[in-house]
Design goal:
Layout: E1 2-6, H1 10-20, E2 28-34, H2 39-47, E3 52-55, H3 56-61, E4 69-72, H4 79-88, E5 92-96, H5 103-116, E6 120-123, H6 130-140, E7 147-155, H7 160-163, H8 184-195, E8 200-207, E9 216-224, E10 230-236, E11 243-250, E12 253-258, E13 261-267, H9 271-277, E14 288-294, H10 302-316, H11 324-343, E15 347-348, H12 349-368
Parallel strand pairs: 1-2, 1-4, 2-3, 4-5, 5-6, 7-10
Antiparallel strand pairs: 7-11, 8-9, 8-15, 9-10, 11-12, 12-13, 13-14
Length: about 375
Amino acid sequence: MRIASIGYGNMGAKYARMIYDNLIPDMTLTCVCVHHAETIEKVREDLGNDVVCTVGKDDLFSHSDLFDAVLIAVPHPSHFQYFKTAAEKGKHVLCEKPASITAKEAEEMESLAEEKHITYGLIFQHRFFARNQYIKDLLETGRLGKIERADLSMSMFRTPAYHKAGSWRSSWKGEGGGLLINQAQHVLDVYQWLFGMPEALRADIEFGKYNDFNVDDQVSMNLYYKDRMSSHLFFTTGEPHEFVRLEIAGTKGSLIMEGHEITLHMFSEDQRDYCAETTCTNAKELGIREERIRMPDDDKDAKQKVLIDFAQAVKEGRKPKADGTAGIHALQLSNAAYLSAWKGQKVNIETACEEYPVQLKKKIAEEEV
């Protein structure tokens, strides 16, 4: 498969080099699309003259006979337009997260992919982490029983220098938000991949708690499910000690994940059966076995695995492991969270995503003033 890499910033350059160095079987880099002509010199320094360099969308697609797929790695607000043009021309698409800035656009992207019969995937590499795949298997095989609670917290520290690294970053107009639309997208994807989508949520968001900007840098939200599973998510970019912690409470066992360490507490029987039969007033007579597992540190290889999976998906005519639906769901959660915080109330996910684009436009207008 011949692929064109769109964008040559931090991640775009890494993807292009990965493909150019033949680290992705069945994928060959034939084109690189840059935003500014002066970036071509940098591409030539890195990749020589082996790939065609283009400037902007129109120039790229005037060479559409040179590639079968595109990899989109430009600022989020441009994803939608690049995707639409690629899909209309029958090109397969692998897109950096988030799919776009609104769930409505992400839904349109998925629908267009289905209509044009193209392979469409998202770079949600956290699905490929060994620890997340292990937890996914635990849940799917029912080893933890019915899940009663799932709490997730994450710190991904970012300094003002990061936010100022690009003029488009950390603003409503340039990025469509802050933490929720950027760093948290990976974790939101893994969360809904593991536990499914809630009906509603309520979010409390700190806008510019740690930074001099209008967007979010700390988020706390409660998710509401039909089966009454309890769920709380907490994300911050203001705490230097970076961490990811997941707690799962099931009727057959519980799990705590911190980094690459997983601790299981497995029960001798389902707690509901135990409660129905025992005369004991606590868990003293319920057998609880502790297991500690150190998972492989395979995070650095995950992006490569995403590209390999995408190439295989195209070859086999199947969906990638993180397909267009993943992009929709992660954005539904972030869009609904923003709307909930602005309104100061619990919101239904589906209806919130209908209203969100209108409210986002208002935020952009306010920011420009």
